[in-house]
């Protein structure tokens, strides 16, 4: 560049700074560097202009509307959620099947008190009176079952005459004069008291039966039959009064003008959901709660029958008044069913229990019925139902007889003929119900593959070796386990000592579908010395309503 006549030279950047050094060999010249820098600056500007539409609101909304996802990437999770929905949909059907079967079991045990028990008492008394004519062929004057029947009959008669001293009308007006809130508290207290006294009552009756039939060869460590008998009479009488107060409170709720008390009592059922749904339940706990719900529903049906009888008597048996009571009765029954369905549906959902567990419960109840029909049964069927469900028919039967005899007046020959025909009808209903239940129970036992526990051959004890030391583990006809150490459940009535016979039922593989929870199965393979100091694992056949209180199981 020539400097002449142009003043001071300028650099490529338009400044008066000294020019940059000349480019070496293989390096770009200053002009080329300037052009490259200008190209990058212009390209960065174009990128900034191009990224502005990408961050616009329309582009964000478009991405939200068009973005997608694939559920099959988490197939197991969604399949499990769908199965939970199907389980909740199956719960009402399976639960009502169990409830239907259990209610008819309670009905069979309840009808037994009115129909077959008086006949059995008559036969036992006839045997006792005519015993000198036949001679003493056996050391026992009466068989153990006959002794228990006579005790039940005497308790019923004594408690029935004691109930005549309780004035139902005075109790009704006394309860009706209380405030609504006070009656609500009383009703809740009565429900709690009913559960507590039932849990202790069956133990009192079992203690009486065993004390009266215990073999004389054994050392007796008890207070005697007479004290146990008075304790049983006192229990049945007090329990009958408690159920009468419950029925009277329900009757007051039905006859109240604004139905506020009835609404509050029904809302109490929904409070039960809060106390049960959010607790941890296993299969054994759920089985116990299901039995309690069956007993509670059947007891409510009997209480509603008592309320209808008392109201119809007050209105001179006018059929029109029955239709006045019908909506309230349906409302109480519907609320009970709805609460049970919701409660069981959420319990099974929160604890990952399938709906098939109710068929197992039904098979366990059916096993009790079938095993009680065997010749070497350990207990009567009505007592088995009492232990399993907590339903004791004696107090409820005493109350119903008291209400019916006070509500219906029998006068004239025709009235007595009608009573005899009604009694024959009850016997026919009892026999028909027993036949149908026995057939259904055999079907359920076969479906559960439990029939081998009933039809195994009798195992005889080895001479010189006690039956409790036989090889293997045995189970009684009521599903009560007897291990090698000779420990038995509290519901097992020991056999006569001279028979020296082990239990008939050998433990089979079918027990595995009833054992819960699964985590306890890991403990089976422990050392035998450790098993001696640990209680045997419970299955559904060993769940006894009265060995525990509440919904807890060891």
TrEMBL record:
Compartment(s): Membrane
Location of region: Disordered: 1-45, 462-495, 510-535
Record keyword Phosphoprotein present: no
Entry superkingdom: Eukaryota
InterPro entries reported in the protein's UniProt record: Tatp1
Compositionally biased spans, kind Low complexity: 24-33
Membrane topology of the entry: Multi-pass membrane protein
Biological processes annotated in GO: cartilage development; ossification; positive regulation of cilium assembly
Any Gene Ontology CC annotation: ciliary basal body
Residue stretches of biased makeup (Basic and acidic residues): 522-535
Coiled coil: none
Membrane among keywords: yes
Key words, A-Z: Chondrogenesis, Membrane, Osteogenesis, Transmembrane, Transmembrane helix
Protein name: TAPT1 protein
Lineage: Eukaryota, Metazoa, Chordata, Craniata, Vertebrata
């Amino acid at each position: 560049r020539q400097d002449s006549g142009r003043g001071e030279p300028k650099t490529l950047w338009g400044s008066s700074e000294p020019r940059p050094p000349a480019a070496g060999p293989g390096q770009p010249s200053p002009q080329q560097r300037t052009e490259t820098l200008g190209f990058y600056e212009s390209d960065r500007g174009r990128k900034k202009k191009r990224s502005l539409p990408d961050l616009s609101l329309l582009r964000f909304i478009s991405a939200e509307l068009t973005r997608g996802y694939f559920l099959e990437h988490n197939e197991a999770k969604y399949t499990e959620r769908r199965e939970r929905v199907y389980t909740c949909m199956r719960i009402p059907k399976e639960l009502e099947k169990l409830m239907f079967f259990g209610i008819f079991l309670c009905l069979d045990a309840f009808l037994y008190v009115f129909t077959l028990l008086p006949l059995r008492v008559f036969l036992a008394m006839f045997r006792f009176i005519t015993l000198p004519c036949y001679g003493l062929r056996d050391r026992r004057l009466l068989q153990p079952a006959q002794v228990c029947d006579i005790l039940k009959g005497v308790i019923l008669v004594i408690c029935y005459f004691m109930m005549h001293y309780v004035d139902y009308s005075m109790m009704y007006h006394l309860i009706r004069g209380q405030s609504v809130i006070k009656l609500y508290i009383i009703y809740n207290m009565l429900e709690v008291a009913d559960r507590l006294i039932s849990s202790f009552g069956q133990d009192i009756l079992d203690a009486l039966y065993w004390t009266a039939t215990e073999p004389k060869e054994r050392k007796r460590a008890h207070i005697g039959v007479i004290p146990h008998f008075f304790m049983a009479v006192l229990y049945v009488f007090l329990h009958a009064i408690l159920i009468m107060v419950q029925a009277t409170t329900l009757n007051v709720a039905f006859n109240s003008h604004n139905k506020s008390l009835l609404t509050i009592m029904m809302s109490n059922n929904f409070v039960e959901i809060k106390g049960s749904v959010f607790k941890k339940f296993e299969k054994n706990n759920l089985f116990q709660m299901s039995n309690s719900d069956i007993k509670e529903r059947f007891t409510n049906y009997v209480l509603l029958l008592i309320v209808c009888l008392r109201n119809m008597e007050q209105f001179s048996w006018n059929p029109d008044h029955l239709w006045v009571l019908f909506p309230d009765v349906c409302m109480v029954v519907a609320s009970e069913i709805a609460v049970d369905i919701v409660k069981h549906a959420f319990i099974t959902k929160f604890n990952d229990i399938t709906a098939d567990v109710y068929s197992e419960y039904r098979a366990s109840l059916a096993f009790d019925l079938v095993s009680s029909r065997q010749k070497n049964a350990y207990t009567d069927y009505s007592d088995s139902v009492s232990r399993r469900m907590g339903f004791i028919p004696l107090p409820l039967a005493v109350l119903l007889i008291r209400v019916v005899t006070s509500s219906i007046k029998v006068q004239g020959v025709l009235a007595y003929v009608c009573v005899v025909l009604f009694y024959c009808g009850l016997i026919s209903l009892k026999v028909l119900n027993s036949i149908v239940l026995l057939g259904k129970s055999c079907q359920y036992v076969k479906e559960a593959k439990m029939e081998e526990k009933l039809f195994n051959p009798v195992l005889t004890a080895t001479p010189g070796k006690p039956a409790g030391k036989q090889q293997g583990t045995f189970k009684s006809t009521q599903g009560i386990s007897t291990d090698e150490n000779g420990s038995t459940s509290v519901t097992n009535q020991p056999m006569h000592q001279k028979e020296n016979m082990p239990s008939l039922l050998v433990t089979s593989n079918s027990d595995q579908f009833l054992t819960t929870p699964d985590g306890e199965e890991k403990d089976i393979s422990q050392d035998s010395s450790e098993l001696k100091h640990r209680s045997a694992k419970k299955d559904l056949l060993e769940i006894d309503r009265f060995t525990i209180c509440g919904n807890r199981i060891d």
